[in-house]
Amino acid sequence: MDSGAAVEVGGLVRSFGDRAVIDDLHLTIRPGEFVALLGRSGCGKSTLLRVLAGLDREIDGGVLVPRRKAVAFQAPRLMPWKRVWRNVLLGLPGRPERDAAIRALEEVGLGHRADAWPKTLSGGEAQRASLARALVREPDLLLLDEPFGALDALTRIKAQRLVAELWQERGCAVLLVTHDVEEALLLADRALVMEGGRIAYETAVDLPRPRDVSDPRFGALRARLLDRLGVEGKEGPEARETEPGTHADTSVAA
Ligand SMILES: Nc1ncnc2c1ncn2[C@@H]1O[C@H](COP(=O)(O)OP(=O)(O)OP(=O)(O)O)[C@@H](O)[C@H]1O
Ligand SMILES: [Mg+2]
């Protein structure tokens, strides 16, 4: 890309009827950068992801994204009449080989389920299959729309670790939409808050990896983000330091 960025969005507007859901949004993501996108339900996060994925072109403004990009949605969207490995290859140009699907499935720990039917997968397995489908595209930009939203706490932690590992191995840029402030701070280099159709707030997550939720700097960032998201009350920085958080109590309700 000319600018050297993985994503370069300038003055983006997306309206539905006369309502601009995205309104003069600017965003730059560096190659290999992991960015988390937070914001209240309905603020336009999925709309932005669809635009970046090239699935929505009814826009004004400038959008530069890599040619190789992949998206994993909150619901895994597997075709029930195709075996898992065929789902992984679905929509790929050319005549991709089964081996490519197997390799991607092995990366997410699902090699043994390659020939299964989607309906026989657990929720976490289906999410991983969806991730394999994104990885097989060897993206320079990976777009993840609440990929762990429907998982139980333990499966979610495993899936987060998996994404962190894959990102470190692959070195692609990632834009992760999440409602979970703690998840954003565990994974991302930078956290954004979307509001009023644009990026209203952002903060670098300048903490060593693996991240430690009990680190006071982690707590301070969490408190600041929760505050920006309008989650008030018990979430003051002092409260957080004496009361280490869990996923449950830092999730922002949809
Ligand atoms: N195709 C569409 N037609 C009309 N309105 C739409 C369309 N797609 C999205 N919207 C509206 O745009 C707004 C933003 O939707 P979007 O799905 O981007 O929100 P979101 O931030 O992803 O929310 P959530 O956190 O609940 O997933 C919502 O008010 C939604 O109703
Ligand atoms: Mg959404």
Automatic annotation (TrEMBL):
Highest taxon of source: Bacteria
Region (Disordered): 231-254
Keyword Hydrolase: no
Domain ABC transporter: 7-221
Pfam families to which the protein is assigned, alphabetical: ABC_tran (PF00005)
Keywords (A to Z) from UniProt: ATP-binding, Cell membrane, Membrane, Nucleotide-binding, Translocase, Transport
Basic and acidic residues bias locations: 231-246
GO terms for MF: ATP binding; ATP hydrolysis activity
Keyword Membrane belongs to the record: yes
Stated name of the protein: ABC transporter ATP-binding protein
